[in-house]
Write a structure and sequence with these properties.
SH3 type barrels; single chain
């Protein structure tokens, strides 16, 4: 727990990308590891409480990272320690790039416990939370949230047909 590793992290569409990831949790019952997504894009999408951002040069060096990195704890996958998606880094000669300092590793169990729960099956397939979508506002139908066209805007074919139908009935 707390190791930064190189891993072929899967995308929902089936593709993968080798990237720096964090071992968030070691499940003593199954022997599996929970590996979380790492990115150099620091914009906080989703829930900020589910992000761990490393920026300080000494933390980056200890973790074996070259750039500031954001680990999305809610984007994760459950794997065996011998999973072939762990990639040996040419620089290190192992999949392990580095490790978080002790004070950060001590926070990981609590941060893992606060994550939304999923089945082992779902975690093994990979958890990919959708970001950037707002939940519907309560009490409003989808049609009542639509924007009204601006004066002078080009009318759509559907609007023209609706006007033609309503105009022919009067």
């Amino acid at each position: 727990m707390g190791d930064v590793v190189t891993f072929d992290f899967p995308y929902p569409d089936g593709g993968t990308k080798t990237r720096a990831c964090l071992v968030l949790h070691e499940d003593a019952g199954t022997g599996e590891l929970i590996v979380v997504y790492g990115t150099s894009h620091l914009g906080l999408h989703g829930h900020p409480e589910h992000a761990l951002v490393l920026r300080e040069p000494r933390l980056l060096a200890q973790a074996g990272l070259h750039r500031p990195t954001r680990f999305r704890l809610d984007r994760r996958i459950r794997v065996r320690p011998d999973d072939p998606r762990f990639r040996v880094s040419e620089r290190c000669g192992t999949a392990r790039l580095g490790r978080l300092p002790a004070w950060l590793r001590l926070q990981l169990p609590e941060r893992h416990a606060r994550l939304p729960r999923h089945s082992l099956f779902a975690e093994r397939a990979g958890i990919h939370p959708v970001i950037g979508r707002r939940p519907p506002q309560s009490g409003l139908r989808a049609s009542s949230r639509m924007r009204r066209p601006q004066p002078g805007a080009v009318a759509s074919k559907a609007n023209l047909r609706a006007k033609a139908v309503s105009g022919s009935q009067t």
